[in-house]
Amino acid sequence: MQERHNGNPMRIGIDLGGTKTEGIVMDDAGRILTRERRPTPQADGYEAILENIRGLVFDLEHQTGVSCHVGIGTPGAISARTGCLKNSNTVCLNGKPVKADLEKILARPIRLANDANCFALSESLDGAGKDYGVVFGVILGTGVGGGIVFHGRLHEGPQHIAGEWGHNVLEAGGPPCYCGKRGCVETLLSGPGLMLDYVKHGGDPTHDTRAIVARAAAGDDGAERAMQRYLDRFGRALSAVINILDPDAIVLGGGMSNIVRLYAEGRARIEDSIFNDELRTRILPHLHGDSSGVRGAAQLWPAR
Length: 304
What we know:
By secondary structure, this protein is α/β, with parallel strands linked by helices. It has 9 helices and 12 strands.
């Protein structure tokens, strides 16, 4: 097997999700050469998940005939204190030395980062934020996460929690969060957060987020009130990020980023709340979609 391609190492990106694990091989120009997805064997436990990743990496290398660097995006982050994974919704990974164990079974050093950081890195390098110096990448989906990239370099911080705006308290006494607090941004701006708020105010519990957005657009008063609360919370939550970070651009990803109103009405709500007389930060939809996370995992190893 070759060790280099056109004089440079190839890169494998792995996006470890709760239901699926996706892998790609990326060349130095950012082109995806091959892609493969497998179910994540979460029910079978920790060792099965590691073995699934090992098999995926070796299959991707066999397909391309190239030995690759490996970057992995995970839910959660590595604890700077213990070296083990923390805050993962794939709970069997929590408290485990994931990075060390993967380096052992893959027989090479790897790079590992939070999946929101991988999204932010991908979108800043060659996605929607590529023309901006400081980019804050936002995940609005079943959870709420974020990542910070300064001039092409991912900033994780000494505690590996940089960008975790989803667990700032937005409304004291709000819905309980799995982190132990109440009223976190995640409990209000995630997809489940919008549905919970809609039902709390008398909405139909069978309606998902798409239905709520569609009903609001069709003139349903209850759905529109839910959307107004959501937009207000979106504006207040991101204004706090901008007041601290003052990024050039914010790139939105995740299922909730498809709400078109975020880019006009949501932006106006941010402008109403920031500590300034204007809003220059661009609020942008993602470019790479569901591929941002796996691309960013590969890009944890920079092209050479």
